[in-house]
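Let us work through a complete example step by step.
Step 1: write down the sequence.
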Amino acid sequence: MNRYNFECSSLSEKENVVNTLREYGVCKIDNFLSGQILDDLTKEVKNSLEDSSEGSYAFGKVQILRKSNCYPPVINKVFLSKEMLEVAQNYMSHPNLNNELFITHDYKHDNGLARNGYLHFDRTFTFKFLIYLSDVDENCGPFSIVPRSHLKGKELRNKTTNDEYEDKKNRIFLDYPELDYTEEDIVPVLGGAGDLIIFDTDVFHMGGVVKEGFERLLIRGHTR
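Step 2: predict the structure and record it as tokens.
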């Protein structure tokens, strides 16, 4: 896929997954879901999006689910699984596994960039499990990262601890040009429906713009 090897074969191999995350800030598992469970998860996700209006999200539709309100059964099975919990527990202390889920269906291409469309680290540390529910190539605005940047991201985030949330500087090209990162450092994470991407949000990352005639459907769990 690229010059970095941040792919693992299975979520159940938690030691390998966690070691990969510690090295790169990201881990990708191809074909994490397939067959009936992928179909059932996609159906639940699309049903959840039916309650969302286009006006609430400039790039298509978005829906936020919270664990406190109980997840639909297939979403619950996938995102509150023992395997995800064990990986989160081994990577961070006392995780509240996937306490929020974000569903996004991007298909609008002409509304500029959201804040997360710029290369950044999250202003609040979060551990995320992202599953593509549509095939994602270069035309679909793939999730993209700078591998191994999570240690620098953590250092920069810690320097903003006492700043008001909106004042926390976290966009790499705009706020930290002295670091000399370029577009060539960014690796798009392409994949098929059912692929899982796990990442530490201190890693420099971004979402891309979906080109006209293409789409990106995904569900992303936030663990804090």
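Step 3: interpret the result. The chain has a mean pLDDT of 94.
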